[in-house]
Amino acid sequence: MKLYWIFLVFLTINLSAKNISEGESLYKSVCFACHGKNLEGATGPKLTDVEWLHGGSKEQIINSIEKGFPEKGMVAFGSVFNSEQISDLVDFILSRQHGLRSMEYKVYHNVTVETKLDWQNQKPDKQLKLNFPRVNLNLPEVDQFGLSFKGTILIAEHLAGDYTLKGLIRQQNGFEILIDNKKLDIKFTDKSRFEAGLKLVEGYHDFEFRYIKDFKDGTLLLDLEGKGHIPISGQSIQKSMTSSHIVKANESFTITRKRIQALPPGSIIVNHQDRLSYAINPKDGSIDAVWSGKSLDIGPNIYARGQQAAKTLGKQLFDLSESIELLIDGEQRQLKFVGYANKPSPKFIYRYGADELSIESFLDDQELVFNYISSSPIEPDFKLSLPNGLDFIGAFGKREGHIFTPQNQSFFQISIPFEEVK
Predict the structure, then answer these.
(1) Long-range pairs for 178-185 at CB < 8 Å and ≥24 separation?
(2) How are strands ordered across the β-sheet holding 393-395?
(3) How far apart are CA 48 and CA 25, in angstroms?
(4) How far apart are CA 336 and CA 208, in angstroms?
(5) Which residue ranges in the chain fall short of pLDDT 50?
(6) Residue 152's pLDDT is what?
(7) Whose CA is closest to 190, among 178, 211, 217, 172?
(8) CA 43, 48, 52, 54 torsion: positive or negative?
(9) pLDDT at 394
(10) Amino acid 227: pLDDT
């Protein structure tokens, strides 16, 4: 009987790991374009913290994904994926949760560094729970005070390990930080910057920040740096929101608009670091060229630049006389080009009638992936016509020869494998 229960626990753990892995694959193919590669947020909100607009329980997140928010550009994925796929996706999202949780603060009036404070027994003058947990030294409404923040820090499994708590504060006395009820050994590296080392295993850790005002400036930066970056103070969280979407060099791409030989006027070129480039037509959303290797030759000499069409370099994946055409009700149509977004991946936005269509792209190892997302409440008849002989994989639909028919018109995807050209 004991061996049976050991086997059952082992099976449950592995099933959970399998579900999370399946959910991760789905996230990387669909969700990352709006919510970021690491769930850090982009055009869509961040998915790792406590600030859930429509509820953060598994059931609430499933409901949000199934019903979508068409008015905000998120389709109802309940008509695209089955309940098991969405459950796996939410398991993955929940497995990546980390950061501050369930925090309250206490304010003690007329306390100084000299008079000190009995943090355990002294009654606070004010005590409140924070809806959005973060340390903020500017909350008290009195001039001289003591202040404590108490809550928990959640560490996801993939982030567990050694950390350095790094901070900046204008005073070197009158504050202390406790993790799991142990005071950290804080060392100042200059007048205002400090740090402390610690180890954080997976799960919840008690957190407390104690502070007695000894300087007029309430500046506080407080961040955990290790396998992940976890901002603790309000100012650190704000700073991370303005810097987290800087594109890293190994994920970068450029978007340019040039006159290209053998391609329609106004073609927009996306170049992924000279690994792969493609040209998209702003008039109808067609992909008129895809090539690996070097992107463009803008002209043979300085005088000719800007006076003659640029040339594509590298290896073409299909003939320039062909294209990946978007068909609506069986034919290629003129669309209204609204513009493009470039965080965290290229996204081209079109209108047809009162509805909106976006075409997103990204590289997944050695595949170019296109996501097509429609906001139409009434499903049009979308199809993709691809060049004869082009190797492609159609996800969430059916392939017949060079025609791809989506099973759901709100969201579909194609992947095009390519070889690197050195």
Answers:
(1) 178/206, 178/207, 178/208, 178/209, 178/210, 179/153, 179/205, 179/206, 179/207, 180/205, 180/206, 181/206, 181/208
(2) 336-341, 347-352, 355-364, 367-374, 411-417, 393-395
(3) 17
(4) 54
(5) 1-15, 243-250, 300-306
(6) 97
(7) 172
(8) positive
(9) 83
(10) 93
Which of 327, 298, 106, 136 shows the shortest CA–CA distance to 222? 136
The answer for residues whose C-beta is within 8 angstroms of residue 121's C-beta and 6 or more apart is: none
What is the pLDDT, as a whole number, of residue 133?
94
Q: Residue 298: its pLDDT value, please?
A: 61
φ, ψ at 74 (rounded to 5°): -105, 120
**Residue ranges of the chain assigned to CATH 2.60.120.1560:** 99-243
Write down the pLDDT at residue 8.
39
**Where do the H-state alpha helices sit in 39-82?**
58-67
Q: Long-range contacts: 177-186, Cβ < 8 Å, 24+?
A: 177/207, 177/208, 177/209, 177/210, 178/206, 178/207, 178/208, 178/209, 178/210, 179/153, 179/205, 179/206, 179/207, 180/205, 180/206, 181/206, 181/208
CATH superfamily of 17-95: Cytochrome c-like domain (1.10.760.10)
Q: Could you read off the pLDDT of 223-232 as tens digits, one per residue?
A: 999 999 999 9
**Cβ 332 vs Cβ 323: under 8 Å:** no
Pairing state between β 296-297 and 287-292? unpaired
Looking at residue 272, its pLDDT comes to 85
From CA 366, how far away is CA 52, in angstroms rounded? 34
Range list for CATH 1.10.760.10 in the chain? 17-95
Task: Specify the pLDDT at position 247.
Answer: 38
Write out the CATH class of domain 99-243: mainly beta
Q: Which residue has the tokens 């006389």?
A: 321
Helix/strand number for the chain, H first, E second? 5, 29
pTM as predicted: 0.69
By percentage, how much of the chain surpasses pLDDT 70? 89
According to the model, what pLDDT value does residue 50 have?
A: 86
The full DSSP string for 149-203 is EEEEEEE-GGG-EEEEEEEEES-SSSEEEEETTEE---EESSSSEEEEEEEE-SE
CA atoms within 13 A on the CB side of 66: 14
**H or E stretch at 279:** strand 276-280
* C-alpha distances in Å from residue 349, one per residue of 87, 236, 418: 29, 33, 25
Paired residues of 398 in beta bridges: 405
Looking at residue 289, its pLDDT comes to 93
